[in-house]
Design goal:
Rossmann fold, 6-stranded mixed β-sheet, 2 domains, 9 helices, alpha/beta, 28% helix, disordered N terminus, 8-stranded mixed β-sheet
Amino acid sequence: MSGEPTMDEGLRTPRSLKPGDRVAVVAPSGPVEPDTLERGVAVLTGMGLEVSLGAHVMRREGYLAGFDAERAADLAGAWCDPSVAAVVCARGGYGASRLLGLLDWDAMAAAEPKILLGSSDITALHQAFALRLGVASCFGPMPGNDVLGGAGGPEPRSLASLRAALTAGPEPVTGDRVLVPGRARAPLTGGNLSLLAALCGTPYAPRFAGRIAFLEDVGEQPYRIDRMLTQLLQAGAFDGVAGVALGSWVDCGDPMPVLADRLVPLGVPVLAGLPVGHGSPQQSVWLGGLGVIDTESCSLTGLLGDREKTM
């Protein structure tokens, strides 16, 4: 794509949602569980949104939610539809990175920017949308997962944080420990560590220069976290990083010693224990939006400019 934007040029922030807005739920990664998705969609409609489902959202091909071309068509179609205000990913799993070479980036760049919501495997899309479309996106819980679509109803703190992120702007997120004290004010980028490491050597490889790097993961033992951080360090991803914000590390043993070993020598503020990523609660952050790490208050604050509260 000629003249494609880079993250250094700054990212556009889509408009906030308001009651009556139409959002499209698509499944770019793993297959969804119908009952969970139905409950999650009900949560979105309870927020005053009109929800439409991608044509192939209930498809299943092994560990994927349908064939690559089907998933790519649903995603691109929703993004290019002028009646859609947000594209909501049903769940993570695996498969989003397989779509990056199938999307018509020129057509998507010509479309009006809108919200992309998702986490975990959707990290690949967050990274690609930032680099190819120059659009900030929302890293938060998805309707096909238990945090929003569980049988007991949505987790309240997660829902409140998501509502704020999509309407009035993100709420501050509080961590539980400081690895390196200090303050950093810079755009927030990153996501799931496994996905970021897997993007090394591709056109979507992460670069954290002048930015706060957000990292989280699930089900990875400390030696694997060490390997992925080492890969990113040796690839130069952390060169010039402004700060590091560490989210949840569910079922990862005790990752703090290796996180400290690999990240403290960077000499920038490092805040840990943010409830963002996996597990419960799952608070929402904007990737590509301005973030502030303040280790004195042990908080990460997102700044998207003034937004009128509409919901």
